[in-house]
């Protein structure tokens, strides 16, 4: 593997933490948990009935309380918000506290109580954080949906979670145009009688129609006071459901608790980011994804940090937008994605070089593997060879970081492209099919061998699926679905997904979800999709479809099908290319050989195809790829 190292830290070398964690991980996490404010202490640290873990049983806590009430300095800035259209707002901890209490009271008056689900479909505005913290305050379970998802994706999630209230906005800005969120919600919830209320924030000022369930945000809070005590909730009380794609047709509702999750987020936020009173932290993730939950909404606030929150596209209206934000707010910690970095890198060095980025002291990435050349570009051009980079590996299901350098804790040599080591108190290994650890530098499956505090409670309403998806491949071990190797120095390198999940621009999307959308089109009988490597997005989606008998194949039809997938799931699911083929490569038992599609796509040797039902299908797929390669140059 890549052996070049960069030893650059922030002067921290706290060896006691790793030692404590390795001696007794359960006691260790209890000590970490004590850094939060609990109403009542737990009587059992961990109840582990595999595969179900309950952390800090008997303890009571509240996420909103830990994000707001515990902070003495009400004048401290919590959020420096910038809209895509350059609207700006500065919100202090005190103001945020007041907003949240008022909105909590309004939710209560609308009949929302402990355990009720509330769907949030908002752009990246401070009210999104207000809505989440208000749900948390009264014990309602929030489920945030990324504002790029379509009406039918919202509908699936609202139906699955049975949300009684939806919080949205008239519209949001994206690349200078207005995305009409309220209209999308209208079509999503048409006929869903269990939805009682839709609260609408005025953001973009576009025309909307208010029906009898609808109420504007300002009217909703008009009569509410700004005093609302936080509910004392059991540690294992669900904080949120976040839907994520997997290997099955429909997204799964990942369910997180309160006490364990907050412990994990609080500790990892401090270890990874070395947060100080004076820091200006900026994570570019949208709150619609887990990174935004853990390291925009909850992490910085429970640590009392000041953060920048940005509404729009990172390269709008010019490719200098991010550097302009970093310069203007004097950002000290910047956490973004490899996809964004690859895009910035493509625009050239002159742009970042013309901004003053001297305030930066720490850089991070998340969501997909980072190529060593991009890492080095980030290190030199953005960090000016002064800032450590943390490559953080984790998942929606893990709640928080699991592998990462931790400059807030220790200084280690950094290897570009490696996520370094497991965080303290977490046991991760690379194993073969049988669960035995593989030797160094050997590819295997990444698994987690002991419960950890940020781990999901279950999948919403589906314990059985939780068991089969994550805990059936290896006994009492969590299966991540990722390939990895551990080098001879013990560094982890992530090698992408081992299952049928794609990572397009860092967003997770299941092949099964895409295929089920494709075959719902009237002219398609079968479909297979796979990811092919892309210089900016990491991976892009390529679809192969078999048209129904008698269907005339035209460019219009191709465009129509691509648009149908986009409308059905959302823009992130748009196939880059779609090919009509007369058959798909399948095994004799009828399973689509995705391994083969992927191999052809990645220019790898095809290997053994003796199990194929019909060799001619391979030729067709190969021909389609040859054509694609020609097009992509
Ligand atoms: C991938 C995002 C390589 C991985 C926080 C994982 C990564 C999936 C990294 C989870 C990283 C995340 N290096 N790959 N630093 N971070 N991944 O649920 O495949 O959206 O399983 O969570 O992203 O994606 P999710």
UniProtKB/TrEMBL annotation:
<dbReference type="Pfam" id="PF00501">
    <property type="entry name" value="AMP-binding"/>
</dbReference>
<dbReference type="GO" id="GO:0019427">
    <property type="term" value="P:acetyl-CoA biosynthetic process from acetate"/>
</dbReference>
<keyword id="KW-0436">Ligase</keyword>
<dbReference type="Pfam" id="PF16177">
    <property type="entry name" value="ACAS_N"/>
</dbReference>
<dbReference type="InterPro" id="IPR000873">
    <property type="entry name" value="AMP-dep_synth/lig_dom"/>
</dbReference>
<dbReference type="GO" id="GO:0003987">
    <property type="term" value="F:acetate-CoA ligase activity"/>
</dbReference>
<protein>
    <recommendedName>
        <fullName>Acetate--CoA ligase</fullName>
        <ecNumber>6.2.1.1</ecNumber>
    </recommendedName>
</protein>
<dbReference type="Pfam" id="PF13193">
    <property type="entry name" value="AMP-binding_C"/>
</dbReference>
<keyword id="KW-0067">ATP-binding</keyword>
<dbReference type="InterPro" id="IPR025110">
    <property type="entry name" value="AMP-bd_C"/>
</dbReference>
<comment type="similarity">
    <text>Belongs to the ATP-dependent AMP-binding enzyme family.</text>
</comment>
<dbReference type="GO" id="GO:0016208">
    <property type="term" value="F:AMP binding"/>
</dbReference>
<dbReference type="GO" id="GO:0043427">
    <property type="term" value="P:carbon fixation by 3-hydroxypropionate cycle"/>
</dbReference>
<dbReference type="InterPro" id="IPR042099">
    <property type="entry name" value="ANL_N_sf"/>
</dbReference>
<feature type="domain" description="Acetyl-coenzyme A synthetase N-terminal">
    <location>
        <begin position="16"/>
        <end position="67"/>
    </location>
</feature>
<dbReference type="InterPro" id="IPR020845">
    <property type="entry name" value="AMP-binding_CS"/>
</dbReference>
<dbReference type="GO" id="GO:0043955">
    <property type="term" value="F:3-hydroxypropionyl-CoA synthetase activity"/>
</dbReference>
<dbReference type="InterPro" id="IPR032387">
    <property type="entry name" value="ACAS_N"/>
</dbReference>
<keyword id="KW-0547">Nucleotide-binding</keyword>
<dbReference type="GO" id="GO:0005524">
    <property type="term" value="F:ATP binding"/>
</dbReference>
<dbReference type="InterPro" id="IPR011904">
    <property type="entry name" value="Ac_CoA_lig"/>
</dbReference>
<feature type="domain" description="AMP-dependent synthetase/ligase">
    <location>
        <begin position="71"/>
        <end position="452"/>
    </location>
</feature>
<feature type="domain" description="AMP-binding enzyme C-terminal">
    <location>
        <begin position="513"/>
        <end position="591"/>
    </location>
</feature>
<dbReference type="InterPro" id="IPR045851">
    <property type="entry name" value="AMP-bd_C_sf"/>
</dbReference>
């Amino acid at each position: 593997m890549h052996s070049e190292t960069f030893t650059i830290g922030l002067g921290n070398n706290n060896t006691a933490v790793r030692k404590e964690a390795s001696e007794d991980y359960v006691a260790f996490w209890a000590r970490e948990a004590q850094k939060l404010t609990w109403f009542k202490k737990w009587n059992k640290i961990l109840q582990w009935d595999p595969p179900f873990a309950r952390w800090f049983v008997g303890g009571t806590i509240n996420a909103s309380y830990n994000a707001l009430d515990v902070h003495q300095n009400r004048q401290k800035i919590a959020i420096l918000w910038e809209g895509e259209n350059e609207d700006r707002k500065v919100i202090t901890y005190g103001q945020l506290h007041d907003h949240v209490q008022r909105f909590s009271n309004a939710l209560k008056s609308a009949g929302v109580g402990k355990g009720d689900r509330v769907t949030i479909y908002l752009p990246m505005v401070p009210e999104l954080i207000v809505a989440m913290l208000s749900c948390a305050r009264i014990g309602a379970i929030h489920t945030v949906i990324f504002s790029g998802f379509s009406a039918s994706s919202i509908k699936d999630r609202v139906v699955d979670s049975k949300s009684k209230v939806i919080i949205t906005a008239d519209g949001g800005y994206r690349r200078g145009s207005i995305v009409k969120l309220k209209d999308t919600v209208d079509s999503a919830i048409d006929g869903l009688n269990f939805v009682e209320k839709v609260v609408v924030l005025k953001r973009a000022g576009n025309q909307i129609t208010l029906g009898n369930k609808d109420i504007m945000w300002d009217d909703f809070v008009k009569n509410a006071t700004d005093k609302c005590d936080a509910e004392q909730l059991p540690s294992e009380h669900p904080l949120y459901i976040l839907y994520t794609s997997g290997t099955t047709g429909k997204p799964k509702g990942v369910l997180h608790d309160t006490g364990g999750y907050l412990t994990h987020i609080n500790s990892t936020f401090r270890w990874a980011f070395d947060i100080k009173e004076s820091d200006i932290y900026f994570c570019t993730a949208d709150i619609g994804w887990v990174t935004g939950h853990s390291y925009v909404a909850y992490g910085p606030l429970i640590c009392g940090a000041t953060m920048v929150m940005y509404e729009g596209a990172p390269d709008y209206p010019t490719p200098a937008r991010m550097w302009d934000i970093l310069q203007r707010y004097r950002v000290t910690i910047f956490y973004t994605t490899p996809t964004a970095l690859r895009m910035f890198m493509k625009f050239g060095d002159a742009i970042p070089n013309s901004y003053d980025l001297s305030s930066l002291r720490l850089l991070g990435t998340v969501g997909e593997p980072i190529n060593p050349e991009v890492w080095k570009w980030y290190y030199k051009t953005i960090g000016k060879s002064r800032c450590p980079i943390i490559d953080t590996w984790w998942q929606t299901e893990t709640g928080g970081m699991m592998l990462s350098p931790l400059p807030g804790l220790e200084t280690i040599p950094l290897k570009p492209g490696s996520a370094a080591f497991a965080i303290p108190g977490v046991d991760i290994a690379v194993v073969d099919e049988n669960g035995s650890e593989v030797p160094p530098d050997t590819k295997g499956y990444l698994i987690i061998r002991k419960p950890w505090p940020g781990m999901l409670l279950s999948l919403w309403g589906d314990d059985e699926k939780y068991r089969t998806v994550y805990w059936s491949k290896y006994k009492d071990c969590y299966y991540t679905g990722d390939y990895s190797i551990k080098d001879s120095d013990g560094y982890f390198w992530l090698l992408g997904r081992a299952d049928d999940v794609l990572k397009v621009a860092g967003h997770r999307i299941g092949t099964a979800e895409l295929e089920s959308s494709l075959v719902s089109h009237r002219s398609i009988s079968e479909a297979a999709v796979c990811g092919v490597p892309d210089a900016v997005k990491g991976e892009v989606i390529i679809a192969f479809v078999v048209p129904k008998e008698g269907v005339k194949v035209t460019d219009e039809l191709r465009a129509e099908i691509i648009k149908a997938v986009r409308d059905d799931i959302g823009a992130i699911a748009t196939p880059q290319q779609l090919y009509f083929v007369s058959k798909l490569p399948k095994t004799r038992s009828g399973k689509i050989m995705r391994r083969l599609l992927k191999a052809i796509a990645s220019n790898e040797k095809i290997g053994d195809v003796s199990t194929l039902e019909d060799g001619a299908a391979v030729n067709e797929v190969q021909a389609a790829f040859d054509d694609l390669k020609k097009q992509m140059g």
